[in-house]
Amino acid sequence: MARNNKNQFGLIILGNSGVGKSFLANILLDREIFKHEFSARSVTHRTEFQEITFDDHHYAIFNIPGLIEADQTRVDINKREIDQAFTQRPNSLIIYVFGQQNGRIRDEDVVAFNAINAAYPLNIESLLLVVNGLPATRPKNYEGEVMLMLQDIIQVPIAAERVCFLNHIDRENSNERQALRKQLLSFIVELSPTEHVKAHDIHLNVEEVAMLKKQIEEMAKEFNANKVHFEDEIRQQQKRYDDLITHQKAETESYHRIIERQAEEAKEMRQSQEAQVQQMQQQLETMQQEHQRLRDEMATKTKAEAQAMQRALEASNQAQLALMNKMVEIQSRPPTVIEQSRRPSVCVYYAK
């Protein structure tokens, strides 16, 4: 029986070799799942996925081999791996990762994006563009300029919330990794999974790559030559991006305050439950003492009195059992906190 993927969602990470796809997938998963290393050759050769379940839906995070390589056979294999991811999770969020050299978007990454976008028209509602590995210190309007240039050379409408600029980090520094994860997630939660329908096969031949890269290079040169005419638009794009980052930081801080407040409320509720159980324990001990007193007195009573006391003892047993059951129920009851805010959750996918 064919597997129905309509109600299963994925997060497909695309990009050429060396842009940091596997590293970012691991950052999102918050653990080392995908192999990644500094290498001149591709590290990922097969589509990898990690499935998780959320709200009764299956999610997956995909780590896909890079498209462009020197050998056509390898390129054709990579095309099939990309097809496999879209076939397994047509309803997905898409992250496309661009590499950069001294801040300049790599031509081959634009070529690969255009080839994939032509085959699987990417919906802006589910698409996040990532510029990875940037120096923390960069020109004032860098983000605004790159967004405007990308819009020009990939012919996709770009909004500030659909482009994420990630700084190069110390991969061994857990604080920097967590900060990078939060930044990436703050963009991902704004996306909505959409179905990606294949328009045609991915068209890309090795002998055409140099020519296509040259075309992109010429388009970038033309943009730079004329960007003096776009200065106002660049500043506007930069302001939108800066405002977005400021809003995301404020939202994240507010969310963390809510979590801390809810944690404190849960702690107070646990303490209240413990006090309630302790009070019940004391009540149970009093009942047990009274129960034993009645049993001791039965031997000195008349038959009629003993029968009445026996009925009282049976009632005492039932009351004690009910009290003990109530104590168990309270001890096993999780603290209930009214949820005041909730951020969307996402998942990840990679195939082996």
From TrEMBL:
Q: Which domain of life is it from?
A: Eukaryota
* TM region positions: none
| Record bears the keyword Coiled coil | yes
Q: Which UniProt keywords apply?
A: Coiled coil, Nucleotide-binding
Keyword Ion transport set for record: no
Q: Which SUPFAM superfamilies match?
A: P-loop containing nucleoside triphosphate hydrolases (SSF52540)
Q: Coiled-coil ranges per the record?
A: 213-304
Which Pfam families did the record assign? AIG1 (PF04548)
Q: Which InterPro entries match?
A: G_AIG1 (IPR006703), P-loop_NTPase (IPR027417)
| GO MF annotation list | GTP binding
Occurrences of domain AIG1-type G (ranges): 11-201
Q: Name the family.
A: Belongs to the TRAFAC class TrmE-Era-EngA-EngB-Septin-like GTPase superfamily. AIG1/Toc34/Toc159-like paraseptin GTPase family. IAN subfamily.
What is the protein's given name? AIG1-type G domain-containing protein
State the organism named in the record: Rotaria sordida
Organism phylogeny: Eukaryota, Metazoa, Spiralia, Gnathifera, Rotifera
